[in-house]
Amino acid sequence: MMKARTITLTIASLLLICGLAHSEPEKAPSKLCVVWSSADPDVAKNVCFMYALNAKKAGWFDTVHIVVWGPSAKLLAEDPSIQAEMKAMQKVGVVTEACVACARKYGVVEDLKRLNLDVKGMGKPLSTRLKADWKVITF
Questions:
Q1: How far is CA 136 from CA 64, 72, 75, 76, 114, in A?
Q2: Model pTM?
Q3: Is residue 21 part of a domain?
Q4: Residue 138, strand partner residues
Q5: For 121-132, how does the pLDDT look when each residue is reduced to its tens digit (9 = 90+)?
Q6: Structural domain contains residue 12
Q7: At 41, which CATH number?
Q8: Is 49 in contact with 78 (CB distance < 8 Å)?
Q9: Is residue 97 part of a domain?
Q10: pLDDT tens digits, one per residue of 32-57
Q11: Over the chain (139 residues), what is each successive 10-residue block's mean pLDDT?
């Protein structure tokens, strides 16, 4: 009886080592990129921010980035209530980025940097994400 149990355990161990035993495949981390370009504060608060914040807090995605693009840069720089919501997202781990070309056009580069956004060229990072395993949504 002991010999049979040892043989069974040895075979099971070999199957695991060789990868032949049934095991759950490793799940790749999920990544979401939210591109926020609307200058509408209702879209920002009630759609874009609500989804991005909850996607991170609820664990719907492991990684959540929000990209401030176009007219949203001006809105963020000027509206304290929008700024407070951005800070709340940063607090739970949403990565906040802004397109430097857009920020320059609106004269808000320094304002966005003071809000702890990573202000940089976003064309290449966004293109890379679109080609990779990121989910990208735009508001």
A1: 10, 17, 22, 21, 26
A2: 0.79
A3: no
A4: 35
A5: 999 999 999 999
A6: no
A7: 3.40.1260.10
A8: no
A9: yes
A10: 999 999 999 999 999 999 999 999 99
A11: 47 46 62 98 97 97 98 98 98 98 98 98 97 95
